[in-house]
């Protein structure tokens, strides 16, 4: 679940709930999308969105335990996450992820879908865990990663080494904008950045259209195939489903 707070022209979306890992399942994804619908409806003039989360995780990725009983559940989660990422790219305002805990796999992708990532440096890491747990990364995940992390060294560390990136490592790779001590300082820095961006008084539809041009390849990848496999003999969904059956 999530909450939405409006402070002037800043919207603060906080992922909450009894599940401290904030696993991405249809219920949570729908809750976040509903909050973004409210943001669009309630924004009046130049605005900015900050997304953060309670507890030790920003998000620990897909809810694989929920998905293991039926392959269609995995496809549903993937489809809904694609829609959420598209919503963020189409939001008519700057977006900031205040990452105060771990962001793994699809949770990492959720953070990367924001224009800026600010991160707590005394706890938490960014981590594409698929290699370590024997899963193939969805092609559209890689497209998004490449659009945000331009360095081949970063791709290797994130995708082919499954490195657990601290805030400082993320800053060095150009993935994280700045690193801060503690939850309060990280969120405060995000609020300060949001207020600074709002003061620029950019027109929301212009900002959105410019972002869509920058991430045109990501939008194509999000729409390219309802199944994550993209036409291979064994689709990504098949691969993940088979792995889940053997490991979960």
From TrEMBL:
Q: What is this enzyme's catalytic activity, as reactions?
A: a (3Z)-enoyl-CoA = a 4-saturated (2E)-enoyl-CoA; a (3E)-enoyl-CoA = a 4-saturated (2E)-enoyl-CoA
The keyword Lipid metabolism is annotated on this UniProt entry:
yes
Q: What class of enzyme is it?
A: isomerase
Superkingdom of origin: Eukaryota
Q: Where is this region: Disordered?
A: 226-248
Q: What is its EC number?
A: 5.3.3.8
User: Cross-referenced InterPro entries, in alphabetical order?
Assistant: ClpP/crotonase-like_dom_sf, Enoyl-CoA_hydra/iso
Q: Return the similarity comment.
A: Belongs to the enoyl-CoA hydratase/isomerase family.
Q: What is this protein called?
A: Delta(3)-Delta(2)-enoyl-CoA isomerase
Q: What is the lineage of its organism?
A: Eukaryota, Viridiplantae, Streptophyta, Embryophyta, Tracheophyta
């Amino acid at each position: 679940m999530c909450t939405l707070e409006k402070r002037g022209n800043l919207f603060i979306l906080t992922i909450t709930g009894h599940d401290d890992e904030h696993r991405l399942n249809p219920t949570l994804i729908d809750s976040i999308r509903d909050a973004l619908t409210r943001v669009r409806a309630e924004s009046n003039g130049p605005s900015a969105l900050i997304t953060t989360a309670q507890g030790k995780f920003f998000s620990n990725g897909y809810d694989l335990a929920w998905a293991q009983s039926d392959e269609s559940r995995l496809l549903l989660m993937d489809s809904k996450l694609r829609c959420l990422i598209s919503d963020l790219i189409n939001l008519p305002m700057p977006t900031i992820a205040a990452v105060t805990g771990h962001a793994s796999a699809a949770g990492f992708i959720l953070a990367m879908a924001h224009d800026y990532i600010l991160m707590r440096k005394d706890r938490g890491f960014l981590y594409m865990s698929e290699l370590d747990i024997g899963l193939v990364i969805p092609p559209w995940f890689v497209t998004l990663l490449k659009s945000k992390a331009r360095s081949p060294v970063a791709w290797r560390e994130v995708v082919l080494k499954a490195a657990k990136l601290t805030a400082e490592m993320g800053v060095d790779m150009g993935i994280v904008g700045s690193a801060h001590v503690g939850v309060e300082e990280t969120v405060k820095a995000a609020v300060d950045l949001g207020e600074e961006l709002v003061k620029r008084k950019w027109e929301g539809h212009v900002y959105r259209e410019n972002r869509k041009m920058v991430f045109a390849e990501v939008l194509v990848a999000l729409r390219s195939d309802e199944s994550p496999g993209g036409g291979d003999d064994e689709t990504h969904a098949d691969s993940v489903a088979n792995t889940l059956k053997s490991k979960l």
